[in-house]
């Protein structure tokens, strides 16, 4: 399966995600993305920094983060996952060994369903060594 097929089939085709992208683990290279879903380099830099932040209260928890120019309030931030919400829509970011999955869900999808979809793909990629 190509990286684009992971975005199109494993994420967007589930109906739980409406747009997504896959980056390398440093966030510096886009491997695949939904049409029109552009995450700026500075936005990815902040995402990568959130995974490395070991403070009790991470910077991203206090300030939120941006994806595709939209600002999200941080719901969860740990060494593997970053969840954000803006109104009823949101973002789920999952880091694997070699990749970062960035997925947006619309207001018609429950956050838990979106998170499960992205986390399961992350688990699958980790099992494959990615």
Characteristic terms for this protein:
130 residues; alpha+beta; 7 strands; 33% helix
Give a topology summary:
Elements: H1 3-11, E1 19-24, E2 30-33, H2 41-52, H3 59-63, E3 65-67, E4 70-77, E5 81-86, E6 89-95, E7 99-105, H4 111-127
Antiparallel strand pairs: 1-2, 1-7, 3-4, 4-5, 5-6, 6-7
Tell me briefly what this model is.
It is built from 4 helices and 7 strands, in the order αββααβββββα. The chain has 130 residues and is α+β, with helices and mostly antiparallel strands. The model has no long low-confidence stretch (mean pLDDT 96).
Give structural notes:
It is built from four helices and seven strands. Strands 2-1-7-6-5-4-3 form a seven-stranded antiparallel β-sheet, sandwiched between helices. A hairpin with a 2-residue loop joins strand 3 and strand 4. The chain is globular. The mean pLDDT is 96.
